[in-house]
Amino acid sequence: MLDAVIILLFVVASAGVGFTSVDLLPVEIHEQISNIEALRWLAGGFASVIGLAIGLVAQTTYRRLELRIRKTPIEVILTRAVGLVIGLLIANLMLAPIFLLPIPKEFVFIKPLIAILGSVMFSYLGVGLADTHGRTFLRLINPNSIESLLVAEGTLKPSPTKIIDTSCIIDGRIEPLLETGFIEGQILVPRFVLQELQQLADANNDQKRMRGRRGLDILNRLQELYPEQIIIHPADYEDISTVDAKLVRLSQEINAILLTNDYNLSKVANLQKVSILNVNDLAQAVRAIYLPGDTLELKILKLGKEPTQGIGYLEDGTMVVVEEGKDYLGGSEVRVIVTSALQTAAGRMIFAKVPVLV
Question: Confidence class of residue 50 from pLDDT cuts 50, 70 and 90?
Fold first, then answer.
């Protein structure tokens, strides 16, 4: 919407300039032209085309500038703003005596020229100093805070904001992750994600309805437990139809991390340079690593491919193939020794054997 407004302003302004510029032509030319109104409309149309081209360039430049500002840390924006204000104040204080000097009328244009050049120079100097020494400005805000001191020195960086998607809420594993403190910073729940959960909860399909209600229950519980960390974000994009595309756009605009367990969404977001925290990848990474010689306690649940093999499962779902495990089928837990492990496309598989009693 804003892009269209910017382009429209340039088109209208250019058309107005072209329309009124005909009146600036010499009187002789006006007398030679029989239809001056047609010339005005022609000049306005030609100028509007030029305005359209300038508007497109201005709109592209504005979007690039906006994206760059969004990616700039807030402490950098704050210190640069302070440096700019200080630079302008110094420029006014130093240039004030110049305006009191008597200057001949033919050189009266020098005063505003000096004022402009001086303001630009000191403003640039203030912003440059803020980039160099601006971090220490945070010490003035709260000098007794160790966290503020570390942020000011660049040792500590603020935790980035996370945006959670619908599948991650319904999954439910976000709750124990928050309880254990492994996820820091604010977690934004976009309004369009809430709408998707509500649509699932109102669906005719029993399975979808159950998933939607589960997600809403989990979200309500998280908001009660972590009211300062779970934030409902009002952003929405009417020009984008899918929730996944909206999540990627919002993550790009506020430079946030996307929290999901959707494999396809993770791949699409990575292609668009959006940082991802995939709960499935985390679960895979924290699985216990068993080496040959380690012992396990598990229950043999079914027979394996070989006549003497038995198969059991760990708590995380990893399949364990036990040699000579047939005799323990359906019984109590048995202690086995790991002999090897195999990583396949379907997951991890562990091979073990029942120790021989001497």
Answer: confident
